[in-house]
Every structure is written in structure tokens, then in C-alpha cells.
Design a protein that fits this description.
Layout: H1 11-23, H2 42-48, E1 57-59, E2 63-65, H3 68-80, E3 92-96, E4 99-100, E5 111-115, H4 123-138, E6 146-148, E7 165-169, E8 177-178, E9 190-193, H5 205-216, E10 237-239, H6 265-275
Parallel strand pairs: 5-6, 5-7, 7-9
Antiparallel strand pairs: 1-2, 3-4, 3-10, 8-9
Helix pairs in contact: 1-2, 4-5
């Protein structure tokens, strides 16, 4: 199978990021996009950004934005933060209003989830893949604990208040799997998984879901750092470790050096830096 489907950028996000990179603009949020023909207007960006089954907009391949208001803020942040910082030597955590996007020490020890029965004959396989992905982070930090609550599987949706998040099937050509950040509203705290997870080549289901659980813990894509040289997203992040092109949070197609999304020592160092050992 072609690996290009793995966490494919939504058209809008890819268009916007590429336009800013090519034009090398450094505009304020108030600057009208029409001043440069290569930068799409907000209406163009919104129209071309993939909207998921739950209404969320998907940017950067597998990151959900709750609504139009937040999508516009994201667009404005792209206008205002397109000039990347250079010389960053220090996994990276998402930032919201200048604050680390993370769970509290109590919450991160009890990240409960269910796995929908709608996966049918593949449910047990998803359960196992989730356990494998969770174990990557849990083995690195005793502060992190994902808790599978099988009793909630028959009602495994975002409206289930008995779990922190749900794992549900989706049919899409936009990504293999999609997750959320700690700051996401409960209505969008789900991990959505497409059937293509079973035919993703060297990317095992456990590693794919390990990547998604990295987002659940608050970690951003490693390739948004300037060292990657491509796939820039924004500057709303704080470095936790030295840049690692082989990180589980680095897209292989964005100058990544891991062919299988394997968990790295830098990923372990990053989660300990954020949540403790």
C-alpha cells in the first residue's frame, strides 16, 4: 500500500503551510491574505480543510480543531507565526495561550478509554493495538497510565462520561487514525481509526496508535521544528528534548528517518520531562 495516506494533510492545512513556506512571508494576523496571491484567504482555507464525521476540522494530518471559531484562530496563528525560529536545539508539547497543553498529575494516571463494538471482528485487534501503543508511553513514565474500560465498549462514544475518551471506527481517505489534545472539548475526545491501519506497511497498528496517543498526551509533530526543513505547522509549542528525526511523532514523509514509527529514547525523555519519571 502507498504510505502517502498515512495521516495525510488536510487540503486546507497543506495549502496554507506550503503557501507560507514558498512565499517566506512574515505577516501579522491583521494582514489581509490577499496581499500575496500565494496565500489563501480564510474562506478558501476553510472551504478546503477537511471536516470530519463529528464536525471537527482536521489540520496537520491528524489534529482536530473543534469549530469555525478555533479554525480561524489557527489560520490567524499561521499568518502571524510563519517565520520559524532558528537554532532550536532543545518530543515538543502543544501550547495553548502560552501554557503547556497537558493533563494534570491526577488525570494522566487515569486516562480511561473504551473501544467501540462497531469495530466488529476487528475489535480485539484494536484493543491489542491500543494496549501496545499505550505501553510505549507507560513504560517510559510511571506517571502515565491509560486504562481500558471494556464495560463501556457497547456505548463507546464521546458522550460517554464514564471514560476520558473513546476509540471508534471511521471510513475516510484523509487519514489512518486521528486523535485529540488534552485541551480538546469532551465532544471531540476520541481516537478515530480507519480500516487502512491494517494495510499500512511497516507502520504497525501499535505504533500508529502510539503516535496518536502521543497527541492525547499533548505532544506535537516533531517535524514542525525548523530542523526538519519541511512540513512546518506553527510555533505554538515548547521543546522538551533535542530534535529527533526518528521520533514516533515525526512523519516519515516529512524528512523523517524512521520507516516504522518506532518509539525512540528521545520520546521517552520527552514524556518524562513533561509528566515525570
Amino acid at each position: 500500500m502507498s504510505t502517502s495516506r498515512f495521516k495525510r494533510f488536510s487540503l486546507g492545512a497543506a495549502c496554507l503551510s506550503a503557501a507560507f513556506t514558498a512565499a517566506a512571508v512574515s505577516a501579522s494576523a491583521e494582514t489581509a491574505p490577499s496581499t500575496t496571491s500565494s496565500v489563501p484567504s480564510y474562506s478558501q482555507f476553510e472551504a478546503s480543510t477537511y471536516r470530519d464525521v463529528d464536525g471537527a476540522y482536521v489540520v496537520n494530518g491528524d489534529e482536530a480543531i473543534a469549530n469555525k471559531t478555533k479554525l480561524k484562530l489557527y489560520y490567524q496563528s499561521m499568518l502571524g507565526t510563519t517565520k520559524q525560529k532558528s537554532g532550536t536545539t532543545d518530543l515538543i508539547v502543544n501550547r495553548v495561550n502560552g501554557v503547556d497543553d497537558k493533563w494534570s498529575s491526577t488525570q494522566v494516571r487515569n486516562l480511561t478509554y473504551c473501544v467501540s463494538t462497531k469495530f466488529g471482528t476487528r475489535q480485539a485487534d484494536i484493543v491489542n493495538a491500543m494496549a501496545q501503543g499505550a505501553a510505549l508511553w507507560e513504560s517510559a513514565s510511571s506517571a502515565v497510565n491509560f486504562v481500558y474500560v471494556s464495560s463501556q465498549n457497547s456505548n463507546c462514544t464521546v458522550s460517554n462520561s464514564n471514560v476520558v475518551f473513546s476509540v471508534e471506527p471511521v471510513q475516510t481517505t484523509q487519514y489512518i487514525a486521528r486523535a485529540f489534545f488534552p485541551s480538546s472539548p469532551k465532544s471531540q475526545r476520541n481516537v478515530l481509526v480507519d480500516d487502512s491501519i491494517w494495510t499500512s506497511g511497516s507502520w504497525t497498528p501499535g505504533n500508529v496508535l502510539g503516535h496518536e496517543l502521543g497527541h492525547v498526551l499533548g505532544f506535537r509533530h516533531e517535524h514542525t521544528r525548523p530542523e526538519s526543513g519541511t512540513c512546518f505547522e506553527d510555533n505554538n509549542w515548547r521543546p522538551l528534548t533535542a530534535y529527533d528525526s526518528a521520533s514516533i511523532m515525526h512523519y516519515p514523509q516529512c524528512n523523517g528517518t524512521s520507516s516504522n514509527l518506532s518509539f525512540q529514547a528521545s520520546d521517552a525523555t520527552g514524556v518524562r520531562a513533561l509528566y515525570g519519571s
